[in-house]
Amino acid sequence: QVQLVESGGGSVQAGGSLRLSCAISKNSYSNYFMGWFRQTPGNEREGVVTLSCTGIPRYADFVKGRFTVSKDHAKNTLYLQMNSLKPEDTAMYYCAAARSCLAAMTEADFDDWGQGTQVTVSS
């Protein structure tokens, strides 16, 4: 099991930036398919970005050009740089890990989840 701990959420104005971090407990996380999801009250979690086992990112259309995923192997940390934030980006953001390298950007494909970090964007 992989333990994931998110941080970096907060409140910003529209157009601002935040960088989320996900500390990963296992050194072998590079063998995992990673992802960032978000959820608003009353809604299901939606995929924001995934990072394949070989390091290929895939972004949801609504964040393309604004969000960037990266990883630091030395620190066992996954990042999500969020720029040009919009009020509709307000959500709880979750880091997730899938043991299968064939995972898709769907909640059901991921096995381990962090506790989430809140992002609030005001207009």
3D structure, described in words:
The chain is mainly β and 123 residues long. It is built from no helices and eleven strands. The radius of gyration is 13 Å and the shape is globular. The mean pLDDT is 94.
Topology overview:
Elements: E1 4-7, E2 10-13, E3 18-24, E4 33-39, E5 46-51, E6 57-59, E7 67-72, E8 77-82, E9 91-98, E10 112-113, E11 117-122
Parallel strand pairs: 2-11
Antiparallel strand pairs: 1-3, 3-8, 4-5, 4-9, 5-6, 7-8, 9-10, 9-11
Structural class: mainly beta
The amount of helix comes to: under 10%
The total beta strand count reads 11
How much strand?
over 45%
Name a few traits of the molecule.
single chain; 123 residues; mainly beta; seven-stranded mixed beta sheet; globular
In short:
It contains no helices and eleven strands.
